[in-house]
Amino acid sequence: MGAMGDRFLRAGIVGLGICGLAGCGLLPPTTEAPLVSSSALSSLPPCVDDDCNCQDFRDQASAQIVLEAFPDDPFQLDRNGSGAACETLPLTALPADPAVPPSQSPHLALGNPSNAGSGNLNNYLLERSQYALSYNRDRGTANWVSWQLSADWLGNTPRQDNFRQDGGLPTGVYQVTPNDYRNSGFDRGHIVPSGDRTRSVRDNTATFLMTNILPQAPENNRGVWRELEEYSRDWVYQLDYTLLVMAGGYGEQTRLAAGKIVVPSRLWKIIVMLEPGQTLSDIDEDTPVVAIDIPNRNTVQADWRTYQTTVDRIELATGYDFLTAVPTPVQTILEAEAANLEALR
Ligand code: MN
Ligand code: MN
Fold first, then answer.
1. Fewer CB within 10 A of the terminal residue: the chain, N end or C end?
2. pTM for the whole thing?
3. CA distance 322 to 114
4. If you measure from the C-alpha of residue 192 to the centroid of ligand 1, how many angstroms do you get, rounded to a whole number?
């Protein structure tokens, strides 16, 4: 990338300040003025903080917004110079599925981000005692998984390592097998980590169903992603917090298994942190919410804090609506800002 690209990327890093780096203090201050204002960055998808590619966008319209915010096109979204970004993408995303009745599952206490139900095989709700997820037949992966993590879920069960196809999918949906990832160069990356379900063999085994697995770049899975998993579990082990976690992937960098499995180009996670004794009704504008969005690549920074963003920006990139169970005024505040991690410790 040339000097111009570097300048734009630096602007993106400055942009991270909007989501709390002033508080985190993790990146060195830069003396360069951002080329895109902080308020503009807050309404752009997370990829502008590192590197956007056409494969990161759901539709042409969202790529076009980034191109218009960066008219010199540092991300090369308009290679043919036509003024239109990523012309091979569908013009607009499919409309959202209609609202579904609220679930009693503790894993969906914050809401159902995509209105997953039984009517759309690309947004198919699977509820288990260990987690809830929206499955996407055409991608061969979950759209998102949502799970509660408290000390109750943690025990001494060793990792079962019994990856296997998910017989809970409806008829007509291909059941991805562990072998579909073989020799692909991608790990079978857990969405709900094995280490979050160690109370019983049954619970741990549920994390090895292939519906809870994404093709994940090995360095990402074993490095930055794992660090965040361990960081979040520490809040439970050491401080008895209850976490409400949602995670998934979006975008398409390639496909595996003769096209049956999409490798997401980006991975995201949202963690809502409840103090001991707090319940859903205690969520207020001071509740810590950690939101990250990371390229699904081997070349990633080791520190997950580098990838901190806001829920709003993940909503923009994915099209989902998170935290719908939180009253709107609080939801609006929590989604617009990133947790001040320094203040948390
Ligand atoms: Mn993993
Ligand atoms: Mn929301």
1. C
2. 0.89
3. 8
4. 8
